[in-house]
Amino acid sequence: MTGQYPGPPQQPGYPGPYGPPYGAPPPKPNRTIWWVAGGAAVLVLTLLVVAVVVVTRSLSDDGARDAGPSGSPTAPGTALDCGMPGENATAPITDRVVAGPLSFPISAAPGWVPQGYVTYAQSSQAQGLVQAIPGQSWQAHAEIGLTTFTTKPTSAEAARRMLPCIAAGAGYARSNPRLDGLTEPEAVVVDGVTAARVTARILVQKDGLDIRGDTVTVVVIDSAPQAYFMSDTPIGDEARAAVAQQIFDQLKVARDV
């Protein structure tokens, strides 16, 4: 289960200043010839001005295109912001689910079993628990892991980036996902350590599925290394949402990792 953004708008080019006016043509013995010569001069001048406008506009547009990628920041939630997949978890789940400094007891989620996949693919050492939804090809899910951003974002920025990445990831790829109601990061505390939380709904449409989508929570902890907790439960499923909250409430952050 559970982009490229265009650069800044191109500025139209503007023609450069016109050159000094042409001097008066010398007297001609034949008035018809004078008009022909004058017309030719006007035509040449017109073509010259058009050429200047075209060249100037082309240079201006090329400059705008070249400046686009470096001048426009990458928006959160695009593929470039999601991080890179890291190492898989190696420790088996026993009485606790562990990822780096973060852990929780399996007793926090009775009836849930170890997950067979990672929802936030751009992570490291991720582990979690799931519970199948009877009669549906769907699961409720809670996961912890380490972030793998190439830069070091704050916990608030990391949380803001992660949730759109989850919605756009492989877990929802066959369900026509749509992110709805993404909240601003909220400051929270996890086992005495500051963290940031965001929530949203990921709405889905899939043949044979009677679930509207998931309520998804992402919490990024100011631990070292930076760790996260995420949960997704079917919209309106209060019982499983309560289990996800229970897992969150029992998170522990190790200080010596």
- The number of E-state strands comes to 11
* Poorly predicted residue ranges: 3-38, 42-79
Shape: globular
End-to-end separation: 30 Å
CATH topology label of the domain at 97-253: Protein Transport Mog1p, Chain A
Question: Which whole number gives the mean pLDDT?
Answer: 77
CATH homologous superfamily caption of the domain at 97-253: Mog1/PsbP, alpha/beta/alpha sandwich
User: Major beta sheet, specifics?
Assistant: 8 strands, antiparallel
CATH architecture of the domain at 97-253: 3-Layer(aba) Sandwich
Helix content: 25-40%
Number of DSSP helical runs: 3
Q: CATH first level of the domain at 97-253: which class? A: Alpha Beta
| Series of secondary-structure elements, N-terminal to C-terminal | HEEEEEHEEEEEHE
**Class by SSE composition:** alpha+beta
- CA gyration radius, whole angstroms: 30 Å
User: What is the oligomeric state here?
Assistant: single chain
Strand percentage, roughly?
A: 25-35%
Structure description:
The chain has 257 residues and is an alpha+beta fold. The protein has a domain at 97-253: Mog1/PsbP, alpha/beta/alpha sandwich (Protein Transport Mog1p, Chain A, 3-Layer(aba) Sandwich), CATH 3.40.1000.10. Helices cover 26% and strands 26% of the residues. The protein has 3 helices and 11 strands. The strands form 2 sheets. Strands 3, 4, 5, 6, 7, 8, 9 and 10 form an 8-stranded antiparallel beta sheet that branches. A 3-stranded antiparallel beta sheet has the order 1-2-11, with no helix packed on it. It is globular and about 45 Å long. 34% of the residues are buried. The model is unreliable at 3-38 and 42-79 (pLDDT under 50).
